[in-house]
Amino acid sequence: MPERKSFQNYIQLSPSSLSLYMECPKCFWLQKINGIHRPQQIFALQSNFDRILKPYFDKFRKEGKLPPELNGKVEGKLFEDQELLEKWRNALRPTLKYKHPRREGFFLAGGLDDCLFDGRYYIPVDFKTTGSSSFEENSEKYYQHQLDIYNFLLTESGYETKGLAYLVYYKPKEVSGEGLMKFQITVKKMGTEHKRALRLFEDAIELLEGPMPKSHSDCQFCSWANDFID
User: Where in this chain does the record put each PD-(D/E)XK endonuclease-like domain (predicted)?
Assistant: First the structure.
């Protein structure tokens, strides 16, 4: 069994790392305890589109408008404080961060894509780009925990939320002769729960405080990782 790395003074978890925890506890443990990461995937469609969509939303923010695909489908308007939003978006140096009060050295943090404000409540917006309709049809399975966490982090940072978030799916539909890509856009309203976010965080902490889990039967990376720890 691999030894724990001794230089870690704290462990920071995020919506993406908790996605890994839910998918394969062993890969999650190896990443956070021993610094062994899965091979990086070559095609990062989601991150590339995030870099395009955020400035696109910012353009409408400056005009005090919603993007047309959100009109009549969401509560509130785009959060106006661009400077603060940029801090909330920064996942590398997060300002939306929660330190567990009883589990020393464990933090939960995340970066928003965007945020709505209805005059009282803050409502996270998360962009998703996919070529498959299965993700839209199974939103709760794939993305519920992420939205739970964003609302939890906003609340713990002193911003009032109402148990609500939105997923905005941009599904590539066709490419025109000018190289312009058209999208099928779906806006999905999702309820959130703070207790669920905290429970997931604490379950992941408990796993990290224990021994390395067994390989997951459906994980193609577990056998690859064994080459580094045997």
Answer: 12-225
pLDDT band, very low/low/confident/very high, at 2 (cuts 50, 70, 90): very low
pTM score of the predicted model: 0.88
Lookup: tokens for 165? 């978030």
* Domains in the chain: boundaries: 11-229
Overall CATH class of domain 11-229: alpha beta
- Nearest-5° angle of CA 165, CA 83, CA 143? 25
